[in-house]
Amino acid sequence: MKQSPSENEFHKRLGPSKFSAQGFLGNDQRPVDEIIAEDARTLESLGITQKQMADSLADAFEKCRAGLGAEVELFPNVTGKFYESMGKIPSPFRGEGVFEKGEAVVTDAKSSEKIILTRLSINLIKKHCFFQGKGSRFRIDPNKAAEILRL
């Protein structure tokens, strides 16, 4: 199926760039609307709203950030650590501005599962239910996030 020029431009903004390094799609070949729809179905099957997920991710991110680089306990057996990074990154969705870089790595000690949180990734989930494509370094798998964050 042929994409419109605006769809082509949007898809290009989701790909690798000087701002986003590897991009937002990873090795996922699906159209963005399919990625979003699948993750929305996953949230629904878990009984979690998009807002609940985004709020929980934001809460974990802020707790990690407040730790100033020290490991913080978020839940029993779940820790997070914030890694500061200079600069800002623009949202691939036009008109949403730029977001500070820096990431919080949240780890479940029992399962060894990790999620990487950024202000931009949380915004993408909050506003668009876009968890990013499979294979993206910053993809937040909704199943994994729900498990780690005890949702």
Please give a quick description of this structure.
With 151 residues, the chain is of the alpha+beta class. It contains five helices and six strands. It is globular and about 40 Å long.
Termini separation comes to: 38 Å
Got a strand count? Answer: 6
Number of helices: 5
Shape: globular
Residue-averaged pLDDT, rounded? 88
- Given as residue ranges, the uncertain stretches (5+ residues, pLDDT < 50) are none
Task: Tell me about this structure.
With 151 residues, the chain is of the alpha+beta class. The chain has one domain (5-148). It contains five helices and six strands. The protein has helices at residues 5-14, 32-46, 50-66, 119-128, 142-148, and strands spanning 72-75, 78-83, 88-90, 98-100, 103-108, 114-117. The strands form two sheets. It has a four-stranded antiparallel sheet with strand order 1-2-5-6. β1 (72-75) and β2 (78-83) form a beta hairpin. It is globular and about 40 Å long. The protein starts with a helix and ends with a helix.
Annotation keywords:
151 residues, alpha+beta, four-stranded antiparallel beta sheet, 17% strand
Write the layout of secondary structure elements.
Elements: H1 5-14, H2 32-46, H3 50-66, E1 72-75, E2 78-83, E3 88-90, E4 98-100, E5 103-108, E6 114-117, H4 119-128, H5 142-148
Antiparallel strand pairs: 1-2, 2-5, 3-4, 5-6
Helix pairs in contact: 3-4
